[in-house]
Amino acid sequence: MSKYSGLWFFYDDDISIYWNRSNTFNVYINDQEINCFTVMESMTPNQAEEQADEWLSEQLEEEKRENFDVDHEVVNGRDCDGTPF
Q1: Per the confidence metrics, is the pTM higher than 0.85?
Q2: Total of domains in the chain
Q3: Is 45 within a domain?
Q4: Separation of alpha carbons 21 and 18, rounded Å
């Protein structure tokens, strides 16, 4: 018997999310756990996949915002390359 009895959801860039069929989701990149999150409600497998999709989407959006802030300096209302911000 496998040590996993939950469901796996697979994404681009070798990201996967494992749901233990309860409240916990474990996030992996290249088979290494990098994060986890919980959803405190009972779910069907489809609802769990929606939760995983939504969580990952939010994380990627947050990462984009953080990288944008680091990569772009705004001076006098203009981006670092001179274009209006």
Answers
A1: no
A2: 1
A3: yes
A4: 9
Residue ranges with strand state E in the chain = 7-10, 15-19, 24-29, 32-38
pLDDT digits (tens, 9 = 90+) for 6-62: 999 999 999 999 999 999 999 999 999 999 999 999 999 999 999 999 999 999 999
Domain range spanning residue 60?
A: 7-71
CA distances from 62 to 1, 3, 5, 27, 42 (A): 38, 33, 31, 16, 27
Structure tokens at 36: 């986890």
* pLDDT (0 to 100) of residue 50: 98
Residue type at position 21: R
**Exposure b/e, 9-41, CB count within 10 A at least 16 = b:** beeeeebbbbbeeeeebbbbeeeeeeeebebee
First-to-last C-alpha distance (Å) of the chain: 56
Distance CA 14, CA 29 (A): 6
